[in-house]
Amino acid sequence: MPTDDKNENVTMKVFLPLNVRIDDKKILFVGGGNIAMHKIQTIELYTHNITVIAPDIHDDLREKGFELIRKEYEKSDLEGFFLVYAATDNIEVNRRVKNDAAARGIMVNVVDNRELSDFISPAIFKQGEMTVAVSSNGQNVKKAVALRNRIREMLGKKE
């Protein structure tokens, strides 16, 4: 297991890049603001089987056809979901989602917190059936996005 050079006893989080079949899986987003909106823009390239639970939900999400539930998160909300994104601006709620999901064996991405996450989302470029994913193991997101953008430009698709 990789360790931090400064402290041999500190274990770093290491993420294995892989593709996961989600065509019949339910994905939950706890949080409905800008943080969730940003992640959903990538996930919706692959599925619309998305549920959002939050007291306040971004206007742009209302038009996408996802299941939207306006309420505070409760651990029973996790029932039946394959993957969960904790995407609130409240670290305590995100931590609670992570702990509740771990108790149920559900993998969680705590957005913007790789240390609490079971998985991370790479910077993705999708063109037809081809997907290019660039990851920095969650350590340098800006660099991963910049490289993804260079690949997008090289392949001739600009957004």
Set down the secondary structure blueprint.
Blueprint: E1 3-4, E2 7-11, E3 27-30, H1 34-43, E4 50-53, E5 67-69, E6 83-86, H2 91-104, E7 107-110, E8 123-127, E9 130-134, H3 141-154
Parallel strand pairs: 3-4, 3-6, 4-5, 6-7
Antiparallel strand pairs: 1-2, 8-9
Q: Give the strand order of the largest sheet, numbering strands 1, 2, ... along the chain.
A: 5-4-3-6-7
Beta-strand fraction estimate = 15-25%
Overall tally of domains: 2
Roughly how much helix do the residues carry, as a percent range?
Answer: 10-25%
Gap between N and C termini, in Å? 39 Å
User: Helical region count?
Assistant: 3
Number of strands: 9
Report the mean per-residue pLDDT as an integer. Answer: 89
Structural class: alpha/beta
CATH architecture of the largest domain: 3-Layer(aba) Sandwich
Can you give me a brief rundown of this structure?
The protein has about 160 residues and is α/β, with parallel strands linked by helices.
Task: Describe this entry's structure for a reader.
It is built from 3 helices and 9 strands. With 159 residues, the chain is of the alpha/beta class. It folds into 2 domains: 23-121, Rossmann fold, CATH 3.40.50.720; 122-159. A 5-stranded parallel sheet has the order 5-4-3-6-7, with helices on one face. A two-stranded antiparallel sheet has the order 1-2. The longest helix has 14 residues, at 91-104. The chain is globular.
